[in-house]
Amino acid sequence: MRFLLDDEHRDFARSLDKMLTAAGPAKVARAWAAGDTAPGRAVWAKLAEAGVLALAVPEKHGGLGPLPVELAVAFEQLGRHAVPGPLVETVAAAALLDHLGDATLAADLLPGIAAGTTIASLRAPDSPYALDADAADTVLVTEGDTEGDTGGDTEGATLLLAAGAGPVQPSSDPARRLARPLGGTVLAQGPEVTAAAGHAAEVAAFAVAAQALGVGRTLLLETVEYVGGRTQFGVAIGTFQAVKHRLADTLIALEFAQPLVHAAALALASGDPDAGRAVAAAKVAACEATYTAARTALQLHGAVGYTDELDLSLWIRKARALRTAWGTPSACRTRVLAP
Amino acid sequence: MRFLLDDEHRDFARSLDKMLTAAGPAKVARAWAAGDTAPGRAVWAKLAEAGVLALAVPEKHGGLGPLPVELAVAFEQLGRHAVPGPLVETVAAAALLDHLGDATLAADLLPGIAAGTTIASLRAPDSPYALDADAADTVLVTEGDTEGDTGGDTEGATLLLAAGAGPVQPSSDPARRLARPLGGTVLAQGPEVTAAAGHAAEVAAFAVAAQALGVGRTLLLETVEYVGGRTQFGVAIGTFQAVKHRLADTLIALEFAQPLVHAAALALASGDPDAGRAVAAAKVAACEATYTAARTALQLHGAVGYTDELDLSLWIRKARALRTAWGTPSACRTRVLAP
Amino acid sequence: MDLDFTAAEDAFRTEARDWLAAHVPSAPLPSLETAEGFAAHREWERTLHADRWSVVSWPKEYGGRGASILQWLIFEEEYYAAGAPGRVSQNGINLLAPTLFEHADDEQRARVLPSMASGEVIWAQAWSEPEAGSDLASLRSTAVRTEGGWLLSGQKTWSSRAAFADRAFGLFRSDPDADRPHRGLTYLMFPLDAEGVTVRPIGRLDGKPAFAELFLDRVFVPDRDVIGEPGQGWRVAMSTAGNERGLTLRSPGRFTSAAERLTELWRSGPAADDTADTTDTALRDRVTDAVIGARAYQLFTYANASRIAAGGSIGAESSLNKVYWSDLDIALHETALDLLGPYGELSDEADEAPAHGSWAEGYTFSLAGPIYAGTNEIQRDIIAERLLGLPKGRR
Amino acid sequence: MDLDFTAAEDAFRTEARDWLAAHVPSAPLPSLETAEGFAAHREWERTLHADRWSVVSWPKEYGGRGASILQWLIFEEEYYAAGAPGRVSQNGINLLAPTLFEHADDEQRARVLPSMASGEVIWAQAWSEPEAGSDLASLRSTAVRTEGGWLLSGQKTWSSRAAFADRAFGLFRSDPDADRPHRGLTYLMFPLDAEGVTVRPIGRLDGKPAFAELFLDRVFVPDRDVIGEPGQGWRVAMSTAGNERGLTLRSPGRFTSAAERLTELWRSGPAADDTADTTDTALRDRVTDAVIGARAYQLFTYANASRIAAGGSIGAESSLNKVYWSDLDIALHETALDLLGPYGELSDEADEAPAHGSWAEGYTFSLAGPIYAGTNEIQRDIIAERLLGLPKGRR
Fold first, then answer.
1. B334 contacts in C (CB within 8 Å)?
2. CA pair distance A304, A306, nearest whole angstrom
3. Nearest to B168 by CA among B156, B158, B182
4. Which one of B132, B172, B291 makes the best mutation probe of the D interface by having the most chain D beta carbons within 10 Å?
């Protein structure tokens, strides 16, 4: 056993970090929020170049994957830099198409996803909305029995290609644009769609967990830096024990969520039938830790943290949205102890 | 509206406080725990003299009550001083007999309760044990439908006088001695027993809430005193912000539970049909606040708080036991929002 | 000891309820943190004022009803239960007016209070400065003596409502040589449209300009707009600070009404195409705790009101209130968002946001609670030191 | 990156599991905090030792198996899963032995370690003093030079296991004139039955004498029982302190096994005459959080073990462990007591206590977690200052 990231993983993380830092992610996210997706698409292209989007696509369709550990590394960086766009959904769509086993469909859509030329969105089973459906090139929807754990005696689910999206419903995270997919043509139907949808939901929840961890890391780092500089009553507020302990608790929560995310990656990589449980545990731990980090960041920044002018607000608001995306805390906890 | 204790209430509290302080309550509780109930019975007699036991008994049976506000005042003092014995159960038994309306039974048992010559116990509907059943003169048990809210089409419950008690099962609070009531003769049967048992359980839960608040107050006061004197790293540990904030949170929890207990008293006094809800809210708030106070007291006293030599351990351990006695937090919360 | 209202109080409640039923707009007004919503809310203040409901606890001569504390609590309960609009005048009514009643002279009261009651003049507070958040004593903005008044210079920030308000009030350093930092401050009122004032709106978390930075460059304020004695501003302001933390800013009606709406949400589910999962007792317990918490806050306030009516007063106890309601408010709204499931992510501006976005906007609003009016960290220090008597430390 | 065990590790696991299945007593031993239980647990140590299971990670020459960290973790997982008895030797094995391996000479190791491994000598720790709890640098007990050794005087307290143990180890002030309080301390081992030693057992919350006060009056200790250099005791002890907080004292197997028993309790209900309320999702969520927490702790430890195996080391990170496992342990046992309903009130000595009182005793034990080995308040200070780099303050 060597339950540590390898050197190549760390190099990959560093190169993504460098690339995304250079891209000025806060500006990209603000543009995306305002409906200007061009800077976001440029980042998307760079991510594709770095191989991020190929990680969920098998080699025979132009990808490198599926490589869940590498996905965890990448999505943590995407969270650290608050990169906008339906990244989770695109990766989940790829997982769905790969798992479905319909060669024509896969050949149609997967190469574009791997190359970064197809931005996809996918509606989560528990939501009426598909993330950034207005900006996506391909919007997929599953309907019917999408839970994936009801056994064989079912008609199964239907996979649809949406004809478009309804008006954008702004999220409390401005860089997330929600919309109802419209109409659609049937792409596939049957129990295999149920299974593929279930697998896609697991991959999505897993990617959200990794992304959330990255969001939490940035929130913690920025807050530690802030309290070291901000003075009140003549001293840096970082010397107050109440401030220290709150930040210590935030670090603890993130540090112990991290290995759950890595273990979920390994479970997905090995096709472990209990992967869903591992993903659910990682999702709830990572998202709760990150929400704690957001509350801490907000409280310790004080009023300045409560403004949208501070770029940190992008991370604060994303923490809340990710907490419920692709599995509420309650749904995840239910999954962990499900028989 | 004057939602404040009257001067007479405060005088009553002060005189009980004085009397119980003089009785050396920790010694009494330790003797009770060791099976020596004589000092406890002596305190019981003094409480009767002060009118405490008459508060639950109507005038026609030698009592002064029922007077729930005065009961709240008295039980808060009983908790402050960790007085041992089935005080809650005796008051609940009185409420049951009063509510039942069986004149013979009431005339048989209530005058002795009011006078302090009859120590009673009563088994809670959700427990196999009756508190201090081995030390009680009269042990009552209800069986069958004791929930009190199932409407009229029921055979109702049975009220039994137990023939004795099984071997004492020590509680984690050593001053509480639990035992299964043995056998018994039927005293009454029918829907009116159901109603009386339901009322008794409300009164018991209410008395526990008031008692818990008193336990919590002592825990907080003793801990504040301790951290003001104990030094580490060259300063009183009460100057550490982490210590201050934990104690501040404890005070907040107790201060906001207090008016819920008083409101529950008023609801019981006026025969409000929603009294059960008010009692449940008070019980959960008071008991959770007090359990928080116990955890705080233990942590801030450090190792010395973890010893049974320190009298404070009597309060620390009682806080845990009261939390589940006569209604777990979960049961109370269910009751608050029940249709 | 009782919780009984008098017949007169019941009648007052009925009158308030009936008036509100007849006048509260059937569709919610636009957010008061927008230009359009600000104007609509100002108009609502005028409507309230026309029937003497804008400042019920004030003396009749200033537009009030001379209501007792208990009547004020009753009015607030009815106000929130009716789903009436937020109060755009609240900075003036809750923060400035109590100071005027305690420290101003008759001329000032007669001049300032009526237009505040009618909504004609909306007030913004100007407490904080970039380097002085919770540590108000370190204020740097100055008031320099000039003929017939003072010249104000410096920068204020987190000035709530200032993006659209008419006037503001705050503390300025009038004696830079005072021996201690909280001496030598003067409490002044000033117009936001005066020469030398620049207002830069600041967006809060959801982008709405709920507050502003004020840049002041030798802004003239006449002597008549000083409240209390020059140099005594700290003492004058403290009565206002207590008010902000304590009774008036967060009336219990706000939370009991929100807890009732939360219970309703839990029973009915978030949207027409969804159903509530009332078998989730974990969520149910959080709803219950909000209900219990709101009731506890209401009862605690009744007890305080009784204490005041009996001649007592509320001091550092207001810090208990502040921490309690701000934590309760967040828990309550977090629970609501969790009950809303995927709809809980929607911004309050989304067409499909449940309850016209009120849970989303209420959540954003609640997050500021533990920060403003003295952070909850400061409040816990105050509770520990002043109520529990723990020794002061360097924190 | 992987979570795979080698065939050799799997074989080691199987061997441990089989041995435990054959040897773990079918009925639990009496509490090790009683005289009877102490003797029974000492006997169990002898049984473990006979087949080299008492100190698997030690070199073979001292009675171990030279097991890797990962093998040790595997053994611990199997040990707790088998419901094997608590380790009465743990103070010696976890706290003293690592210090001996790092700082003692060969003679000391050869003399001390074998009898520790066999349970022949049970060790108590003697860190704290009445005025020095978390603030170890303020120790006052003295070691005064005498011919051929030292004379120990003073008072130690919270000495766990000392009521029944044979020997103890701790720090003593050998140079009262040292320039800083944590200098001038010496690390010594001493017998508890020596002349001049008085042991006064102290009952913990449940009354059991889990620790003792030690009164020392000129207790002679020969030079050979000094570990490391005289005056260097603080530095010598710190390696032990890290161990206590970190990897060894609370092995993940303890929590994964407890979480499994908790899940079983939740599924099956507390007693034969009762049934579990598996529809209470609030309780279910707490069970789930314990399961997730135990798994996270296990994985975090695997990562640390991998780091160490790769040549890294664990420093202030052990404070993360300490806070996490101690909070987890309390939450886990509180949940168990709540699942037990009315049976949750029973003392572990009650005949009718579920699971032979193990939940009740485990709860009492868990409450000490945030206090000993450096309170969690201190640990959070360490995390903030050493891991996050926040400025030191006066706290």
1. 281, 284
2. 5
3. B182
4. B172
Q: What is the tens place of the pLDDT at every residue in C129-161?
A: 987 766 777 889 999 999 999 999 999 999 989
Instruction: Let me know if D45 is a catalytic residue.
Output: no
- Closest to C241 in 3D by CA, of C173, C187, C189: C187
User: B281 vs C287: CB contact, 8 Å cut-off?
Assistant: no
Does C164 touch chain B if contact means CB atoms closer than 8 Å? no
Q: Of all helices (H) and strands (E), which one includes residue C209?
A: none
Q: What is the pTM of this model?
A: 0.95
Closest CA to D380 of B242, B296, B238: B242
CA-wise closest residue to A123 among A141, A136, A138, A137: A141
Query: Which CATH superfamily hosts domain B201-337?
Result: Butyryl-CoA Dehydrogenase, subunit A, domain 3 (1.20.140.10)
Per-residue 3-state assignment (H helix, E strand, C coil) for D169-182: EEEEECCCCCCCCC
ipTM: 0.94
Residues of D in contact with A239 (CB under 8 A): 390-394
Contact assignment for C280 to D281 by CB distance below 8 Å: yes
**Candidate from A16-25, A57-66, D131-140, D286-295 with smallest mean pLDDT:** D131-140
Residue A38 burial class via C-beta count within 10 angstroms: exposed 0-12, middle 13-18, buried 19 and up = exposed
What residues does each domain of chain A span? 201-337
CB pair distance less than 8 Å for A3 and D302: yes
- The rounded Cα D249 to chain-centroid distance in angstroms is 4
Is residue C190 within 8 Å of residue C167, measured between CB atoms? Answer: yes
The whole-number average pLDDT for the span D206-215 is: 92
Is C81 in contact with C261 (CB distance < 8 Å)? no
Q: Check CB contact under 8 Å for D133 and B170.
A: no
Residue C120 CB coordination number (10 Å):
14
Give the residue on D whose Cα is nearest the Cα of B326: D342
Amino acid at B161: L
How confident is the model at residue D395, as a pLDDT?
47
Residue D211 near residue D200, CB atoms below 8 Å? no
Q: Facing residues of B186 across strands?
A: B160
Read off the tokens for C313: 């007063």
Three-state SS string over B220-249 comes to HHHHHHHHHHCEECCEEHHHCHHHHHHHHH
Q: Is D393 on the interface with C (CB under 8 A)?
A: yes
Whether A243 sits inside 8 A of C283 (CB atoms) is no
DSSP D30: P
Torsion sign (Cα): D259, D263, D268, D269 = positive
Q: Could you read off the pLDDT of A105-136 as tens digits, one per residue?
A: 999 999 999 999 999 999 998 899 999 999 99
Interface residue of C287, C345, C385 to substitute, partner A, most A CBs within 10 Å: C345
Given a cut of 60, whether residue D119 has pLDDT beyond it is yes
Closest CA to C322 of C221, C211, C242: C242
Residue type, C318: S
Smallest CA–CA distance from A242 into chain D, residue = D395
Q: What is the mean pLDDT of residues C341-362?
A: 93
